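This follows on from our talk about sequence and fold. Please put the record directly below this note.
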Amino acid sequence: MRQKLIESGIHLFDEKGFAETSVEDITKEIQVTKGTFYYYFKSKQQLLRDIHLSYIEYLLNKQGDILNDPEKNSREKLRATIFMIIHSIQSQKKSARIFFREMRNLDPEYLKQNIEKRDLFRMNVQRIVEEGVKEGHFEEDINTDMITRGILGVTNWSYYWFHPEGEVSDEALTDIFLEMILNGINKK
């Protein structure tokens, strides 16, 4: 039942927005009582927090697999990370939109948990960039913090406009982003 409530929340928060969705809307959609909702969640805020944490933990687990792959060098890890972000936007589109769009609605205590996990994700990407510098794949004189933020800015905002069923697949978009990040758009 808890998962059904989460799925209902994801659907309605994505469709109507967090502020415009009531607990009654969530329970009505799956035909349960408000008491059922409050058995699993203290509040609508807690449901939003759980949706956020579930999404970022999913990303962190996938990222961990990439980071711990001894077969990949830093360039391959960067590509795999970009693909993972883009693909998760495809495979978990509603959760991704809620994660980015509804963060402003999290209470400070829940926002703090979310920011800690987001920062961990960012620092892991920065570690890949720093490894690439050490391995000689990337320029030595780059600001790895700003490069990392740029990479995440480019990839994370694609949740807003990327349509994997369109003319560009998640693989193709990954390659476009990677080429832009690694080589820029200057004529060679």
